[in-house]
Amino acid sequence: MPRYYFHIRFAGEIVPDRFGRELPGPAAARNQARDVARHLLSACGQHWRDAELHVVTGSQEVTTIRLSDL
C-alpha cells in the first residue's frame, strides 16, 4: 500500500507529517484528510480555519483541503 503524508500549512509555516500513513489509494487518503481536517478544527478551534492540509505520496500531491471550506 502507498504511504500518504498529511502536511499542515498554518500561519506561513509548514508542519510536516514525518511518518505518514499507509492507505489503499487516493480516495482513502482524501477521506482521511477530511477526517483529519475536521479533527483539527474541533480540537484547535476556529483560529485554525486559515490552515490547509496537503496530502502527498512520493512527489505527487493528492489533495489540498482548506479548513475554511469545511
Description:
The protein is 27% helix and 37% strand. The protein starts with a strand and ends with a strand. The chain has one domain. The protein has 70 residues and is an alpha+beta fold.
Supply the key terms.
37% strand; five-stranded antiparallel sheet; alpha+beta; globular; 1 helix; 70 residues
Layout of secondary structure:
Elements: E1 3-10, E2 13-15, E3 21-22, H1 26-44, E4 52-57, E5 60-66
Antiparallel strand pairs: 1-2, 1-3, 1-4, 4-5
Protein name: DUF6894 domain-containing protein
Pfam family, one: DUF6894
Domain DUF6894: 3-66
> Shape from CA axes?
globular
The end-to-end span amounts to 28 Å
β-strand percent reads 35-45%
Q: Spans of 5+ residues with little confidence (pLDDT < 50)?
A: none
Could you tell me the number of beta strands? Answer: 5
Number of domains: 1
Order of helices and strands: EEEHEE
Query: Helicity, in percent?
Result: 25-40%
Per DSSP, the total helix count is 1
Structural class comes to: alpha+beta
